[in-house]
Design brief:
Blueprint: H1 3-9, E1 28-33, E2 39-43, E3 46-50, E4 55-57, H2 66-69, E5 73-78, E6 84-88, E7 93-97, E8 100-104, E9 119-124, E10 130-134, E11 137-141, E12 147-150
Antiparallel strand pairs: 1-2, 2-3, 3-4, 5-6, 6-7, 7-8, 9-10, 10-11, 11-12
Length: 157
C-alpha cells in the first residue's frame, strides 16, 4: 500500500458542534477526556462536558465552587488519580477531586500557593508530577501536593 492510498483510506471527517444558545459563543481553549470517556472542554466561559450528544456545564460539587465559576480556562488535565487540574487566565490553578476544589493561587487561603493567577499550561509526567507553566516560571507539584518552583533567568540581549 502506498502512502497516497493510506492517506486516502483514512480521511478524517469533522462535524460542527453548535453551542447551545444559553451559553453564548464559547471560545474553547482546551480539551481533554475523563475516565468515563466524556470530552471536557475548557472555555472562556468555564468548563463544559460533551457526552456525544449534548453539551452541558461540567458540574463541580464543592462548597467553594463559586471560586471558579467566572474563570477563563486555559488548560485542563486529568491526572492518574482522576483529579481534574484546571489552569485559568485569571484565577490561578485549581485541582478538583472527590468533590473538593483546591485553589493554588496568591489569593488562596491555603498552603498551596503559586505566585501567578495566569497559568498557561499544565501537563504530567510518568511519575505523576504535575508541571505548571505560568507567567512567573515553572512549578512542579508532587503527589502530596508539595510545590517546587523553578525560576529561569531572563535571557540578556
Amino acid at each position: 500500500m502506498s502512502i497516497i492510498q493510506l492517506s486516502q483510506a483514512s480521511i478524517a471527517r469533522f462535524s460542527f458542534l453548535p453551542s447551545p444558545l444559553e451559553y453564548g459563543q464559547l471560545l474553547v481553549r482546551s480539551t481533554t477526556q475523563n475516565q468515563q470517556g466524556f470530552i471536557v472542554l475548557g472555555t472562556d466561559s468555564g468548563i463544559f462536558q460533551y457526552d456525544g450528544f449534548n453539551l452541558k456545564p461540567f458540574l463541580i460539587n464543592a462548597p467553594n465552587k463559586s471560586l471558579i465559576e467566572s474563570a477563563s480556562i486555559n488548560d485542563l488535565l486529568f491526572d492518574k488519580k482522576g483529579a481534574l487540574w484546571i489552569a485559568t487566565r485569571n484565577k490561578g490553578l485549581f485541582r478538583y477531586h472527590q468533590n473538593k476544589l483546591t485553589q493554588f493561587s496568591t489569593t488562596s487561603k491555603s498552603e498551596h500557593v503559586i505566585d501567578s493567577d495566569f497559568i498557561s499550561e499544565i501537563t504530567s509526567d510518568q511519575n505523576g508530577i504535575i508541571w505548571v507553566a505560568s507567567q512567573k516560571g515553572l512549578y512542579a507539584i508532587d503527589n502530596l501536593l508539595k510545590i517546587q518552583y523553578f525560576n529561569f533567568p531572563q535571557a540578556k540581549d
